[in-house]
Amino acid sequence: MTTAAISRSDFWLRFSHSKNAVIGAIIVTIVTLAAIFAPVLAPQDPGKVSILFTWEPPGDRYTLGADALGRDVLSRLVWGARVSLLVAFSVLSITLVIGVTLGMIAAWSRGWPDSLIMRTVDVVFAFPEVIIALLIAAVLGPGTLTVIVALSMVWWPGIARMTRSLVLSLREELFVEAAVACGTPPWKIMWKHFLPNIISPLIVRASIGVGFIIMAEATLSFLGIGVQEPMPTWGGMIRDGLPELRSDPHLALAASASLGITMIGFNLLGDGLRDVLDPKGAR
Amino acid sequence: MPGYIARRIGGLLFIWFVAVLISFAALQFVPGDPILVLLSDQSGDAALEARLRADYGLDRSLPLQFIDYIGSIADGSFGLSYRFAGREVIEIIEGGMWITPLLAITALVIAVPLGVFLGIAAATRAGQLADTAIILLLVCGISIPNFALATTLVWLLSIKAGLLPVAGWGSFSQMILPVVVLTVPPVAYIARLTRSYMLEVFEKDYIRTARAKGVRDRLVVWRHALRNTLVPLLTSIGIIFGGLLSGSFVVETIFNIPGLGRIAIESIFARDYPVTMSVVLLFTVFYSLINLAVDLSYALIDPRIRLQGQSA
Amino acid sequence: ADLRTTIPADPAMVDPITYSELVAGDVMGNIYESLTGLDAEGNVVPMLAESWEPLEGNLGFRFNLRQGVKFHSGREFGAKDVKYTFEQLLTPGMKGGLGARYLDVIVGAEAVKDGSAAELEGITIVDDHTIEIAFTKPDVLFPVYPIYIMDAGIVDEHGPDWASKVSAGTGPFTFASWNLGQSVELDAFADYWGGAPAIDGVDFLVVPDANTAMSMYEAGEIDLLYAPPTLNRRILTDEALADETLRVPAAQIRYLGMNENVYEPFKDINVRMAVCMSIDKEAMIEGLFSGAALPLNGQVTEGVAGYNPVLEPIPYDPEAAKALLAEAGYPDGEGLPPVKLSTTEPNKNEHIYYASQFQEVLNMPVEVEIVERATHIKAMNGGEVPFFAWGWSAGYPDALYFLSQVWYGPSPYNRSRWQDDEFDALIEQAFETVDNAERYKLYNAAEKILIDDYGTCPLTVRMQVALVKPGVEGVSLSPFRFLPFGDVTIQ
Amino acid sequence: MALLEVDGMSVTFKGLRGSIEVLRDVSFVVEPGEVVALVGESGSGKSVTSLAIMGLLGKAGALSSGVIRFEDTDLASLPPATRRDIRGRDLAMIFQEPGTCLNPVYRVGFQIAEALVEHGLCDGAEAERRAISLMERVGIPAASERFRDYPHQFSGGMKQRIMIAMALACNPRLLIADEPTTALDVTIQAQILNLILDLQRERSMATLLITHDMGVVAQMADRVVVMYAGEVVETATAQQLFTAPAHPYTRLLLRSIPTARVKQDALPLIDGTTPPATDFPQGCRFHPRCPLATRECAETKPDLTSVATCQAARCLRLDLPAEALEEAMAI
Amino acid sequence: MTALLQLSGVSKTFRVGAAGRQTDLRAVRDVSLDVHPGETLAVVGESGCGKTTLGRVMLRLTPPSAGTLRFDGVDITNIDAKARRELARDMQIVFQDPYSALNPRMKVADIIAEPLVNLGMSRAQVRERVARVMETVRLPIAFADRYPHAFSGGQRQRIGIARALAVEPRLIVCDEAVSALDVSVQAQILTLLKQIRADTGVALVFISHNLGVVRFLAHRVAVMYLGSVVEVADSEALFTAPRHPYTAALLDAIPEPDLSMRGKRRVIEGDIPSPLDPPPGCAFHRRCPLAGDICRKEPPPLEAKAAGHEAACHFAETELP
Ligand SMILES: Nc1ncnc2c1ncn2[C@@H]1O[C@H](COP(=O)(O)OP(=O)(O)OP(=O)(O)O)[C@@H](O)[C@H]1O
Ligand SMILES: Nc1ncnc2c1ncn2[C@@H]1O[C@H](COP(=O)(O)OP(=O)(O)OP(=O)(O)O)[C@@H](O)[C@H]1O
Ligand SMILES: [Mg+2]
Ligand SMILES: [Mg+2]
Fold it and tell me: If exposure means fewest CB atoms within 10 Å of the residue's CB, which of C258, C354, D16, E28 is most exposed?
């Protein structure tokens, strides 16, 4: 593993020298803080309906305007960050656990467990993700859980495949053979030798993945199977705001901008991390 | 080689079968019985309901229904649509069947060279301002949701400027906007991949060898480096194609293109399961065929792979 | 030139026998005609029947059919076609659609339905253009029922899948082609009895996405747009579109269903009153519907025969509502068990508003639940849904459509299970009362019982919004969607 | 006139923590037709020296002082295009890893002919003909068939032969060979080294042979340049180096090589390790490991001083008798 | 003297190639060797001749395809995974590449402790033992908390040796343990190994292609060519009077740091044959100066040519030119 050869102090030094990583990290931190402190930061109750102020443009009453039910857009954005990140992090955790476990098992065992896992991966890959999501949404009914389950279904094979290929090359490393020679049992080899050595490419992938998951949630919302009311989500806000793009652009714009900037943040962070963690990076 | 292809095709048949099985099974759990959808307001009428169930063979056991469906695939009709009384599924999907892959492949054919070009432009300027600018542009490219991009483009180019038709299918001008919207994310993705693969290849010993021979910088990049990045790039073509197929759902809806993506959404919402299953199967078929093509084309690009396929 | 407009989906069918849904109706209304039709105000006017009179004891009608009407095939329209159509609708295996349910009162309908007879016993062809239809019980509204009459010869001539090839109606347009997923195209019928249309045909483009349809209208790719409610705000706030906008209230009631069998507190009239009084309809119409609605006071809409214009609105009065709730034993909502306000995705915002009002004004523990449409309808039909707002569109322009289907005890569509014997008796009596004025009195009496009992909260009447390009004349938007486009001209 | 003259060359690399001087004041000459060996342990700067001569240091590295004269042209001052033209034609290079130095996706024939075409020396068909004869010359059987094969179809030794054919394609005046045989088996290594010697004589080409293997030096070199920690510590003829090494490092190094010729019971040890470029010691860079080091060695930078004709060393204690080292180590 | 490790007729065959078109690759062919307690047996040969594979078989990291393997008299040819893990108590390995043999994500102390932890030792015992072996290999105890990347190649190799020594094994296989090191560091490690051997009496199987190193360290040497052992002898006998022409060629090919040898080397022709497609008869015959007709047909058996000196050559008696 080439990525393995970076010390901790070097990491921060390289990190601070990578424009992408720093800008990305700043954006991600802001969004994450907004999500965590949504209850404090949101100026109003995001569900508060004010039928007399529907589509109120940005101004004193509502900093970023109000939506079709007169709810405060800024508050909904902040709470929306919460939902987006909740979905993203849940999906990531689930897919990482499943994907990494199965990927490691596949690579370690070779033989039939490998075939079984990789054929399953092939099948899932061959299903367009929207169809998977639609099917799951149809089964579970639309909602946060659906989005999480659907996106997890879509995402784990990628992680499993990546883990498998990383581990396949790792298991040729001498230190793995050394561990076997020392009498280390397989589960411990996976846990102590494989995992720490694949974690950084996984982190890179995860950080880029977060952006895509947030976007995927938005797309599912657009197709009507995303996270449901009363939970505000960016995707839902964009969907609701798009028809009114000309008469009242503030809703769609605010949500699109938040989504876009967050995507940019995670992507830059991921790209930056890739450069930072690659010892033969551009610099 | 023929043995290899036979084995691959066997694998494909298996995947297709599993795809049908999974979609069939999944649809059993979907709330919103197709018959209830047909009945709509009349869903209190038990006699009518029973009659309809019998008409569509839904009163039979699940294994029998599944066998029926497989049989209908074999005879090419793909079963009867629930939504369109008396119509075979093939009639409903045959119009859209080629539209979605056509769109996806067109987008791919544009995206790959463009993305590679941008990626190389960034890689050869690694660390410079131009590199940062290109990366930023690319990240923006993937960060704009396709439905937002589509809406904006329609407003600017079709309504304001009147240059292109808003929607529909059939003429070349109607293809432009959907293809552009579909192309943006893969361009960005391919460019970023190309950039990182290029940077990796630039470190390779054979690049140094080429320079030591006195080969011009431009040739070093385009001749010696590029071809070595194509193999890993090809690997991601499958994923990109999958993304394009998924993208077709939104793009076909917004641009009102009667392709498989729109048919899929309509049929799922209308609980027209035979159509849904057939569309799922077709998507799976397209996707796995592209992957097969990709695998076969490795050998064209990288001679090492050809030898492994033959002698080993 | 062709008139270009959109439909939100492919029609499920284009034949008059299985005809059973809205989009198909939009298309087929231009191809097929019924015994009677509507004018722009929603009044019943003679179409294929020039006149009709009840048979003895109100047990049937004699129709004098219009002379000189030609089918698209060129054949003359006559009594045999009416009989043929009715029999086809009832024959098992033909999957008779909407039209079939109006025919149950005809003598011998049961026998045809269960396959024991091929011909309808109750129909007598008096001569080529006179037909008598006998009933088992009085149904004074029979002439109003919209049943598309088809060309009796067509099936023999073209086989069972004739509908996708030829057209079998008498309307101003003939079916030309149906390009699945793209469009349905109609051609003008030169021999139309009402005079050949001025336009060459009608193109119905299949455009599921409302925003796309709107963009197409703006870009001039279509001439006419029947706007779904999601576009209302965009259209009504755009001054540039003001001259192109048509606004006509729909013949559709919207009510709040409170099923006391499922949610105990609704048994108390005070609770029902409190609920009704906590909705601010005026504010909702402005804020949520951008003005594209009217408040509804009773359970019959304007433009439908039997409408009562003098009903008092239920006031928006939060204080009174609170007081009523306290009187019912739930001061400040205390003691109210939680309840779900169920609906489908498109009606989400409206329900969120109601729920927010109930929570705010009454402190009622309400939660909005979004359900898949068919499941929701099944549950409502089954009387399982405690609390919902739903609509009901008139299938023919008579108040009885609403009253007998939504509130009449035995009706399968009595979704909130409100029941009152006196009301039911009035409805039954109305079916036998030929005299219109007499009958309308019965309607008003029944409606008053319903309203006074707060068996429902009348909500709003949806405003239909349509856009017509300048230069397109003669489009009429009735309370029942567009009238056929036979009189349309395009410059 | 020297073919190549490196004079006072220093090379720095830009890193995250500032610049690192990897080479300092490196000077040596290569006369036409001779084999000069550049030896030293890993990290001593051998490869950087060769890359600096080739002008292939990349973006991060730069010549911070000194001149590199090739046939009296100052290479560093040439415009990039001219420099590129010399590279590959007059100055050729082969590398350590034959496996990774050939482009895996092009036929070997093409890769050999490429330099000829690039430098405009002949057209495609002629280049192909010459490539085949080169392949024959370096001892690849059935060259006219194997011409169309890909690198992975050759063994390591054959790949290195192809690399040599590639480097020789334009008849260079100077061949730089950076550890050309380290990756190969002993028997194959011997074949390749003999081949290089033959070709070098045949074409009266000068060779700068980079290696860390004193055995290879003994078999090949006319003159030797010993590097330690980015500096040249000794230059000498091969004869002088093996019979009378001057610098303590050279002396220790020669003796710590286990030989298969005789049975040894113990190896003299040089304590410690080569310092990394970020952390070169003050004064004499070898002093922390040198048994002869004094305080002065830790403070004063020694210069390269002449000890005999053609022999110079960078040490402050050259005046000590040869036995002094033995005595110092015995303690 | 009973053998500590005894290999008889051991072969190792790999199936290589894509499914359906597989061929056998015989990496190790019919090898019989003994390793005695406290002795150092060197295995030499060129790249790909099967040295590493043989080492892995000895440690039972991979089961042999044929033949039997005894450790301390016990047959360990077909033991299960758990029993194999138990073997780590007695047998350890040191690898060539000090960079990839250490997990970059583990601290030095954890790396050295790994075999001890696997044996279920208590934490205190482990700590104490780690400290002791670090001292043995002369690594300052302060390094215990660092990660491998902070060390030079020689230091890393010491960590690897410490790991192998920690359990106090009776046999250590050193697979090219010094090949990647600089000459000066190589000398340090060789000296260290020699010292450890003297102090602990551990037996070493020392795999190398560097004959100089082998001569310095080994008691006995086995020469491998294309999977087979072609000559086994005491170190001195082998270096002074090689019996197999391949051994002789190997000795000749070594570039000695000795000007007097210049130009006097005899270089054998030809490439090393591929193990996928071995020549018939004696595997060396295509490169052998002595080869006769019999060599093309019959593989020569490994037989004693002198006391303790075995060679596999039809012409081993012939005086080498
Ligand atoms: N691109 C680079 N950036 C920074 N430092 C470098 C670079 N290339 C080489 N160095 C440093 O320069 C020094 C000399 O390296 P060089 O590769 O010349 O050593 P060498 O003598 O060839 O060693 P080896 O025998 O291992 O090939 C080393 O300390 C190395 O870390
Ligand atoms: N796991 C494996 N699968 C298939 N073939 C293998 C495997 N391991 C080794 N081989 C093959 O077995 C032969 C012997 O390999 P081995 O690694 O034992 O040689 P070696 O003598 O150690 O070489 P080196 O000096 O290069 O380390 C080689 O041809 C190698 O390609
Ligand atoms: Mg080097
Ligand atoms: Mg090996």
Answer: D16
Give a yes or no: residue D230 inside a domain: no
Are chains E and C in contact at 3+ CB pairs closer than 8 Å? no
CA of C359 from ligand 4 middle (Å) equals 77
Decide: D212 in ligand 1 pocket, CB within 6 A. yes
Given B95, B96, B256, which is nearest C212 (Cβ)?
A: B256
Residue E296 lies inside a defined structural domain of this protein: yes
Q: Is the dihedral of CA D118, D122, D128, D132 positive or negative?
A: negative
Chain D residues with CB under 8 Å of E210 CB are: 258
Task: Identify from D162, D186, D279 which residue to disrupt to test chain E contact, counting E C-beta atoms within 10 A and taking the largest count.
Answer: D186
Q: Please state the rounded mean pLDDT for residues C438-451.
A: 94
Task: Walk me through the domains of chain B, giving residue ranges and CATH numbers.
Answer: 2-93 (no CATH), 99-258 (1.10.3720.10)
3-state secondary structure of E71: strand
pLDDT, tens digit, for every residue of A67-117? Answer: 888 999 999 999 999 888 889 899 999 999 999 999 999 999 888 888 889
Residue E50's nearest CA partner among E207, E162, E255, E173 is E207
Q: Does E4 touch chain D (CB under 8 A)?
A: no
Q: Which ligand is nearest to the CA of E54?
A: 2
What value does the mean pLDDT take over residues E60-66? 92
Dihedral over Cα of D203, D206, D208, D211: its sign: positive
Residue E319 confidence (pLDDT): 55
In the reported structure, the alpha carbon of residue A172 is separated from the centroid of ligand 4 by a whole-number distance in angstroms of 13
* B204 interfaces chain D, CB cutoff of 8 Å: yes
Cα separations in angstroms, E172 against A238, E33, E59, E84, E196: 67, 16, 9, 15, 11
Cα–Cα distance for residue pair B144/C14, rounded to 1 Å: 41
- CB of residue E14 inside a 6 A radius of ligand 2: yes
Gap from D100 CA to chain B (nearest CA, Å): 6
The yes-or-no verdict on residue A131 having pLDDT over 90 is no
Name the pTM for this structure: 0.86
- Look at residue C355 and tell me whether its pLDDT is greater than 60: yes
Q: Please give the Cα distance from D193 to D181 (Å, whole number).
A: 8
Query: Which residues in chain E touch residue D188, judged by CB atoms under 8 angstroms apart?
Result: 46, 271-272
Are C95 and B85 an interchain contact pair (Cβ–Cβ within 8 Å)? Answer: yes
pLDDT, mean of residues E27-50: 93
Which of A107-111, A130-134, C24-28 has the highest average model confidence (pLDDT)? Answer: C24-28
Q: What is the mean pLDDT of residues C397-415?
A: 92
Count of the separate structural domains present in chain E? 1
Report the pLDDT value the prediction gives residue B128, as an integer from 0 to 100: 82
E51 lines ligand 2 (CB under 6 A): yes
User: Nearest CA of chain E to the CA of D9: how many Å?
Assistant: 25
Q: What residue owns the CA closest to ligand 1's atom 18?
A: D45
Does residue E319 lie within any of the structural domains? yes
pLDDT value at residue E21: 65
- What residues make up the domain containing D279? 241-328
Chain D residues in contact with E268 by the CB 8 A cut-off are: 187
Angle at D113 between CA D110 and CA D114, to 5 degrees: 80
Q: What is the 3-state secondary structure (H, E, C) of D55-106?
A: CCCCCCEEEEEEEEEECCEEHHHCCHHHHHHHECCCEEEECCCHHHHCCCCC
Which DSSP string do the residues of E238-251 spell out, in sequence order? HHHS--SHHHHHHH
Record: fold of A8-47+60-277:
MetI-like fold (1.10.3720)
E252 within some domain? yes
Whole-number average pLDDT of chain D? 90
pLDDT of residue B306: 56
Q: What is the mean pLDDT of residues E257-262?
A: 82
* Inside any domain, residue D5: no
How many of the other CB atoms lie within 10 Å of CB of D199? 18
Q: What percent of chain D has pLDDT over 70?
A: 99
Total domain count for chain D? Answer: 2
Taking only the tens place, the pLDDT of each residue in C237-265 is 888 999 999 999 999 999 999 999 999 99
| E276 touching B (Cβ < 8 Å) | no
Domain range for residue E317? 243-321
Does the beta carbon of B51 lie under 8 angstroms from any beta carbon of chain D? no
pLDDT of residue B160: 85
